[in-house]
């Protein structure tokens, strides 16, 4: 799969083995600039493995990964992050004893470079940006709260604010709705649909409703392979997808 400059991400024939276990086999996919792609699939399908290979948390066994036109296959995660990739984690990486605002402040620090005096002068602007980010994820007014006292849903919203603090060109979210109430799910869909148009989004999501509500294209993984790719409507109508999600055998009918 060749890469064009308009692609945020190209995954080309990537496999990942853990010892004898083939967790992901010959997966290829492309994500255009500003495109929103959801990867769905049942437990053990290989979604997180794909996600971690793209983010640089796991080395691939074979294949290549191209990010914004550059081959990043051998790059560590931090270098991919500097190239414009931000990700969230299934398990929380928040500083629970700090406030929500302080967490975002720390995340912003990862982006700021320069002379300490100049940085000190930009202190006010940095706190304004913290407020803006909290507002964007629906946490305005929650800034002074200790993170350990926030609800699970609010903590996930905060993680999103921290990922956005990096001004990513590609945002990758790993099951952002895990453990959410129906109201929090609806809110998340609104938030994701309001992200800047030019930001590419790769969403790994167990919840099909969310995956289909946010994506322009959906990839279905099953048993370590890419089974199907299509628009949300095509995926909704697919007999194969229904069979997988109902736990039946995967038939030949598309
Ligand atoms: N670090 C690891 N070591 C060994 N096996 C692993 C490792 N990570 C994942 N696997 C295995 O690889 C396969 C794919 O797992 P993966 O977590 O990618 O699936 P998933 O689609 O994300 O599932 P879930 O929805 O449950 O998170 C599974 O059989 C899993 O047990």
TrEMBL record:
Transmembrane segments: none annotated. Keywords: ATP-binding, Nucleotide-binding, Transport. The keyword Repeat does not apply. It comes from the Bacteria. The keyword Nucleotide-binding applies. Coiled coil: none annotated. Residues 9-248 form the ABC transporter domain. InterPro entries: AAA+_ATPase (IPR003593), ABC_AA/LPS_Transport (IPR051120), ABC_transporter-like_ATP-bd (IPR003439), BCA_ABC_TP_C (IPR032823), P-loop_NTPase (IPR027417). GO terms for molecular function: ATP binding. This is ABC transporter ATP-binding protein.
